[in-house]
């Protein structure tokens, strides 16, 4: 699932391509909105909220989309060949005389009144890349369930919005804690650093085509995607296991030497482990 920095860049592309323009093409390829036509409406802008995208139009209408695992918005110039995937994967087209914004594989697509946006994003915690970022509230949210594994708490968008599986693994490494360590067991000094560290990582990467967390040459990430490869700090093989609520297990990477706390047994298969409340997106 895309992280907050990826969604931020998608919002910027949509905003730069469409804002202030009047739509000359509107095509929603989902049954619920198949007959909706927004041509003639001016686009007021697109803003990200956590992992959600809100494209606003005049007359108080908002298009809410979420990329989930495979979705993408692509921007094409007039006459440019569309390369985002086969036509049957297109879910939405917003066109102007010289631009086309094409939404591929969008698993969430809905139109709502702009005044009702809180219905779809009001549950979110402080947005790591938003103007209302509040590190104190984010930390307080994380601490409301001290028994919850740190990795799951970080993915819960009700606590703070924008962290995905990559940043979850990287943040836990930088904090020296396994993703299975209960939030309440994280030393206070490290817990207090967590929101600021998360904010700095996403801010540093929001304009980069390649996400980096290490600051090391030729090494982009400390642990994510590095299963069985040597840890960049101690050379212990990095491990991987599933973590989640059963319905949304996700591969999680960590170094058993650099990170303290509980972890799955060394020979445990990647499968369901513990059941916790589902992590909202």
Automatic annotation (TrEMBL):
Entry EC no(s): 4.2.99.18
Keywords from the UniProt entry: DNA damage, DNA repair, DNA-binding, Glycosidase, Hydrolase, Lyase, Metal-binding, Multifunctional enzyme, Zinc, Zinc-finger
Superkingdom of origin: Bacteria
GO BP term, pick one: base-excision repair
Segments forming domain FPG-type: 222-260
Domain Formamidopyrimidine-DNA glycosylase catalytic: residue ranges: 2-103
Gene Ontology MF terms in the entry: class I DNA-(apurinic or apyrimidinic site) endonuclease activity; damaged DNA binding; oxidized pyrimidine nucleobase lesion DNA N-glycosylase activity; zinc ion binding
Keyword Iron: no
Keyword Transferase: no
Region entry Disordered, spans: 239-281
Comp. bias intervals (Basic residues): 270-281
Reactions the enzyme catalyzes: 2'-deoxyribonucleotide-(2'-deoxyribose 5'-phosphate)-2'-deoxyribonucleotide-DNA = a 3'-end 2'-deoxyribonucleotide-(2,3-dehydro-2,3-deoxyribose 5'-phosphate)-DNA + a 5'-end 5'-phospho-2'-deoxyribonucleoside-DNA + H(+)
Annotated family: Belongs to the FPG family.
Protein name: DNA-(apurinic or apyrimidinic site) lyase
Organism: Streptomyces malaysiense
């Amino acid at each position: 699932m895309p992280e907050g920095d990826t969604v931020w860049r998608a919002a910027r592309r949509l905003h730069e391509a469409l804002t202030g323009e009047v739509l000359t093409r509107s095509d929603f390829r989902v049954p619920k909105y198949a007959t909706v036509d927004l041509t003639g409406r001016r686009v007021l802008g697109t803003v990200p909220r956590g992992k959600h995208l809100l494209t606003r139009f005049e007359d108080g209408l908002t298009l809410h989309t979420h990329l989930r695992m495979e979705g993408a918005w692509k921007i094409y110039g007039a006459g440019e060949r569309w390369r985002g995937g086969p036509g049957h994967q297109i879910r939405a087209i917003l066109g102007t005389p010289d631009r086309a914004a094409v939404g591929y594989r969008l698993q969430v697509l809905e139109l709502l009144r702009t005044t009702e946006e809180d219905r779809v994003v009001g549950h979110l915690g402080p947005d790591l890349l938003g103007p209302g970022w509040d590190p104190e509230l984010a930390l307080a949210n994380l601490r409301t369930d001290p028994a919850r594994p740190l990795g799951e708490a970080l993915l819960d968008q009700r606590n703070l919005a924008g962290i995905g599986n990559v940043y979850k693994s990287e943040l836990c490494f930088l904090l020296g804690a396994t993703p299975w360590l209960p939030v309440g067991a994280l030393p206070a000094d490290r817990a207090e650093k967590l929101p600021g560290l998360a904010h700095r990582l996403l801010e540093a990467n929001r304009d980069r085509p390649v996400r980096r967390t290490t600051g090391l040459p030729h090494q982009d990430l400390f642990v994510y995607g590095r299963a069985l490869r040597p840890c960049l700090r101690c050379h212990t093989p990095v491990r991987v296991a599933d973590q989640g609520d059963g319905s949304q297990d996700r591969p999680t990477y960590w170094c058993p030497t650099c990170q303290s706390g509980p972890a799955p047994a060394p020979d445990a298969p990647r499968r369901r482990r513990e059941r916790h409340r589902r992590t909202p997106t």
